[in-house]
Amino acid sequence: MPNQHEVIKRYIVERGKKHLRILDVGCGDGELLIKIAKRNERAKLWGIDPHINHCKENIEKGGYGLRIKCIEAKAEEIPLKSRFFDFIYSVKSLHEFHDPVKALKEIKRVSTRNGEIVVIDWKEGANTGVMEKYYGGKELKDFMKNALYNPSNLKIEEKGEFNIIIYINR
Fold first, then answer.
1. What is the pLDDT of residues 70-114, one digit of tens each?
2. Which of 29, 32, 100, 106 is the most exposed place for a label (fewest CB within 10 A)?
3. In the chain, what's the furthest Cα-to-Cα distance?
4. What is the pLDDT of residues 120-132, one digit of tens each?
5. How far from chain centre, in Å, is Cα 161?
6. Separation CA 49–CA 47 (nearest Å)
């Protein structure tokens, strides 16, 4: 039986199959970008992270340098044009953002009309072995409200140790 982390990865890869312009916010080592690129040959992918070197190395080593662009940037200041991405995801990064509301505003800004946004992060009380601040449902709803997300297009659910935010930008 797959662990929660593998289930989360599969969930993102499956959603990425149907989109053409994809952004990973907090892409880390680029693992999910590469998995999506393997399953969606038409997709153009971008990853941003404040520490991008490991991602760049993995993308080049895998031969995906022409399809995946790695950009050193913070989620709060995405250096890409507005209304560009069909699918934006962020996995286990929200708690790392200096200003989650500003980051969520930026994510919404670069999403196309009808673009899909998925944010997955540890939920409050998750036992990760790391002393970090994770958010509960009320905090997430407040973040989304303050980032001007329309509540009727928003779904927040708990799955195991994770919160999953799904938003269609209309």
1. 999 999 999 999 999 999 999 999 999 999 999 999 999 999 999
2. 29
3. 42
4. 999 999 989 988 9
5. 17
6. 7
Domains of the chain: 4-169 (3.40.50.150)
* pTM to 2 decimal places: 0.96
48 neighbors 23 (Cβ within 8 angstroms):
yes
Long-range contacts of 136-144 (CB under 8 A, 24+ apart): 137/163, 140/165, 143/100, 143/101, 143/104, 144/104
Give 140-146 contacts, CB < 8 A, sequence gap 24+. 140/165, 143/100, 143/101, 143/104, 144/104, 146/101
For residue 32, what is the enclosing H or E element?
Answer: helix 31-39
3-state secondary structure of 73: coil
**Cα(157)–Cα(165) distance, rounded to whole angstroms?**
7
3-state secondary structure at position 66: coil
The Cα–Cα gap between 137 and 154 comes to: 12
Alpha helices by DSSP H, 63-99? none
DSSP state of 135: B
